[in-house]
Design goal:
single chain, mainly alpha, 3 helices
Length: 61
Amino acid sequence: MESEKREFESRVYAFLAWTMSVLGAVLAILIKKEDGFVKFHAVQSVVFFLLSVTVFAMFEV
C-alpha cells in the first residue's frame, strides 16, 4: 500500500513538472530530490521547453 502511494506521488510530481514547465520541473526536483522517475521527467520537461523556445525563435526571425 505504501509503495502505491509513493508511486502515485511520483506520477503527480512528474505530471506537474510537465504541465508547469520550468517552474514545475524545478519545484518537482527540489521536493522529490531522491526520486529518479521525477528527475527524469523534470529534466525532460526542461529540455523540451528549451528546444521549443529555440525552434520558435528560429522561425520568428
